[in-house]
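Same chain as my last thread, 254 residues:
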Amino acid sequence: MKLFSSQHDFQYPWASVTAANWVKYPNEVSTHVVAVDVLRREVDHTTGMLITERLITCEQPIPQWLRCIVGGQNRSYVREVSTVDPSTRTLTMRSCNLTMSNLLKVYETCVYKPSESDPDNQTTFYQSAEITAYATFKRICDKIEDWSVERFDQNAKKGKIGFESVLKLLDEKLDIGNKFIDEVSGKTVGVIHDVSDKTVDVINEVSDKTVDVLHEVSDKTVVAISDVSVKTVGVLGHLTQGLVAISSGIFGRG
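reply #2:
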């Protein structure tokens, strides 16, 4: 059995890294991964953890000496089960090969956790693998294991570079999205302020005109009332004179 381990810090927060993990493949660097299919996904309501089972399809040439043992198959399948624990901010992925499992077993564990030095902005990636070959002769086992470790190391390095490119792309898209939101928000605020200012102007204009109309109506009402009062006084004066004349005539004949 051969062991492999590595550690790497991604300069992105844990939430961004775990989100990007689901769209990691395909990428222009890790071309050996040709397909990723989700077989099962569920949430454990007791723990709150997200559990995902995936089938990963890889296609990569193998050396001639190994081809003589396993045949000419270049396509292989890997089963992966991952858990996302939001309470501890930990993404753990465990995988094992399904192809050539009678000849070789590769158990891989990958863990993404917030960096201890900068947990809000960096994510530490831990990767380990146990590689065990099964063959009649120890020399063949050792050769298969040595080749597997070398191939695993090459793919792991490609995986980190490819994932960095995916993280950068998503970060750029997020930055563009945030700028668009800020631009739209700024324009929306400007329109609201413009509408608010125009509304205030209209209200003030209507208010001024209303006051002018009220003043005009009030003035005309006062004039009308004065005119009616004068005419009423005149009518009453005529009536009074008439009554006096009538009274004088009546009492005069007596």
